[in-house]
Amino acid sequence: MSDVISVVLPDGSTRDLPPGATGGELAAAIGRGLAKAAVAVTVDGAERDLSEPLSDGARVAVITDGTEAGRHILRHSTAHVLAQAVTDLWPGARYAIGPPIENGFYYDFELPGGTHFSDDDLGRIEARMWEIIAADQPFTREEHSVAEGLELFADQPYKVEIIEGVDAADSDRAEGVGAAGVSAYRNTDSFVDLCRGPHVPSTGRLGHFRLQKVAAAYWRGDERRPQLQRIYGTAWESKAALEEHLHRLEEAEKRDHRRLGAELDLFHFPVELGGGLVVFHPKGGLVRKVMEDYSRAEHEKAGYEFVFTPHLAKSTLFEISGHLEWYAEGMYPPMELEGGTYYPKPMNCPMHILVYKSRQRSYRELPLRLFEFGTVYRFERSGVLNGLLRARGFTQDDSHIFCTPDQLAPELADLLAFVLRLLRAFGLEEFEAELATRPEKFVGEPDEWDVATDALRHALDAAALPYVVADGEGAFYAPKIDVHVKDAIGRRWQVSTLQVDLQEPQRFDMEFVGSDNARHRPYMIHRALFGSIERFFGILLEHYAGAFPTWLSPVQVALLPVRSDHQPYAEEAAGALRQAGLRVDVMAADEGLGSRIRKAKLEKIPYVLVVGDEDVAAGTVGVNAREAEQVRRGVPLGEFRAAVAAEVAAHAPTP
To answer: Do residues 371 and 489 both lie within one domain?
Structure first.
């Protein structure tokens, strides 16, 4: 037997180690800093515990705590500590699943005697978790047969169900169940959890966490199954990272679009309408109109043609499109009318296809770019509704482009550049993208998928847009690009989608007459730029914390006369500003000036103008700008009007 093994590091170099050396020992051999930051390793692409011996020739990478993969492991391990603390404090508690999620983790429980957690219990649980962490208990991996696993977890029915579903979903295999048996991690003799791993070496490696809230959750997400109690938490690699995240959460709470929508009188969700359906108030409707007008003008200049389609259609349309076969559970229930079955439309694309097919098309007409602000309806489950960000009725800025095969790549490149330009116009600057490729279950031919995927990749390269490949994440009928933006506090939002559809042209037998007088099949591109008007409105509202830029603000200028005898001049000044196209509100002197200024500030109006005796005499205004530290007094009205009109005009549609 050799007295040395050699492993390959990510940079291609090799490292010699004694036989039986572990991932942790490899990290220590490379450096003390790496050993301190290490939480696990990947061995030939598979994640493994630091305590697992390495084999000769293995390709090994050390996973550190500051990476997304490392944080995933920290959070998973902290979830185990949470489950141990709960079972210590509530003997007989049943624990279900506890996965890491974005920025945190959760664990689902069923407490004995039907008792429930309260928010006050989180402090007790955290205290017990700190004791477990201080004890520096090792995470010890165990392998068991299915029969042994069933015996080990005999008093935990949710774990038993997972084990009994050996051939079930991948989510169960993530819990440590596979055809060869089950894996588990033990912290002490009294606590063991079903898990695939890996985990940090010991509980002492944890500690920068916070439990956040208690919520209800159905087992397996099925409302017909038992309702469990879910505890959410967050965990990070350092105190600084935890505090930074908690600060972001505080900022996010201040920016919550639902709260701002009520405070700024923009919209609300009436209970009389049912969940997920919004009504916009005059101010919110005005912002929405400005958004839509800007978009329409830009689309018109870019060669799009406007169409309008109804809100519902007979079932026949959705049978041809495949929605009733593939998407029925996301659609509203049907209506039986005059012997026909009708559905509210979940998507606009089938109706745009009908526009295309209304007559024979020639290659000279292509690319044909159809555009609509089309309202669609999707019956999202109540548990996933989230204000404007996830609604049941919403309006998509939907475009469908029909083109020849040789037009596909340049059309996608131009389209992506158009998307990014419009997003920048709304103040969003940081973009990332995902290229979602062919899933395991798909329709069509692989070579068609390759053509579409290559065209999307060409568009991303032409735009110099950073992107990652989401292998297998495309829809069953097409690959796509998802464009993500970062907002003012660093959150990532998915907005625009570009999708090459390989199937709808075939399902609807779409054709065009080519230059050879033969009939050919067009390519179809789906594109939603904002995603939906409602969702994009919500994203912008949170991005700007309600303080929309001047060109988008429902009220751009508030005029405040100091006394009632200054009212005529204020009205005259307001008229002059309105003639310049500005949106102005005169706040009459029926309460104190200070109170009115505070009200205007709370409404986040960009410019608050105060006029008194000197202004009336000189034709000036006092300018209190939202972004300025000091008030400017005695500003000529004409000068102010010209400056703000120019500011707004700078965001007008490009010529």
So the answer is: yes
